[in-house]
């Protein structure tokens, strides 16, 4: 990891973890992929390592991130999906040529050759969760400064925060201090 940047918020769901590279959207936003190299770091953490990224490719990645956020937010609210966001997600998915490969250990790895391939994998993951193909539900973080879309796979499907260690803890601490 590169020093001097905010830590990544890592989650189990690729697409919503990618939207988490911009946090506190309704407060003081924290950009976690401010440079092409930082995007490369994030992709590597998720098994989507590529050798290089340009500023223009970073812009495409951010456009995809914001499109996934918009579509996931609409889906969580059971609103119509934004047409422009759907188009970006579909375009990124179609432009990627990643291949899923089975390792001898029985796990899946991605064969990635470019940023387009990596973004295609992220877009395909977003399509899967927004279309309701996975066991879970899209929800929005209860933190008023965050409101990030996340994929809730808890048994009761009642999770309130995108991340208990950040947003959940902050809200519980605020409630405790308000009672004093």
UniProtKB/TrEMBL annotation:
<dbReference type="InterPro" id="IPR023286">
    <property type="entry name" value="ABATE_dom_sf"/>
</dbReference>
<feature type="domain" description="Zinc finger CGNR">
    <location>
        <begin position="137"/>
        <end position="180"/>
    </location>
</feature>
<dbReference type="InterPro" id="IPR021005">
    <property type="entry name" value="Znf_CGNR"/>
</dbReference>
<protein>
    <submittedName>
        <fullName>CGNR zinc finger protein</fullName>
    </submittedName>
</protein>
<dbReference type="Pfam" id="PF07336">
    <property type="entry name" value="ABATE"/>
</dbReference>
<dbReference type="InterPro" id="IPR010852">
    <property type="entry name" value="ABATE"/>
</dbReference>
<dbReference type="Pfam" id="PF11706">
    <property type="entry name" value="zf-CGNR"/>
</dbReference>
